[in-house]
Structure formats: structure tokens, C-alpha cells
Amino acid sequence: MARRWIVRSGQDFGRAIAGLREVEGLTQAELAATTGIERTYLARLEAGHATQMVERLIEAVRALGAEMIVVHRGHG
Fold it and tell me: What architecture is the 3-72 domain classified under in CATH?
């Protein structure tokens, strides 16, 4: 079953990242190591402390009349 997160803000983005990570059974440290993102930065994103760039990108998507949806379909 697919899991979905609608992203309208930096907080939504953080929830989506945290949700995807948990579905995949990864710790923050494991995801950070895989992506090259600092674990502390990842923790801040997941807690809803999005960067100005993340917020601007989400605003750009919305200004274009689009909606950002993160969908996890699983493996296979």
C-alpha cells in the first residue's frame, strides 16, 4: 500500500522525510550516511525547521499552481 504526504510547507516536507525514512526502516544516521547530509541537519528538517531554500522551492511549486506530493510505493 502506498503512503502519501502532501507537502505545503517546510514542516510537511520534514514529516514526509521522517515518514519515508521510518517506512524504509532507516535511522537518521543511516539516511545521513547514505545521502551525505549531516545527521543534525536531517534531524532539524524532520522536526520542521526547514531551510529558507526548502521553503522557497515549495513556494515556487505552489506559485506555479502545482501541488507537491511525496508517495512511497515500496520495493518491487
Answer: Orthogonal Bundle (1.10)
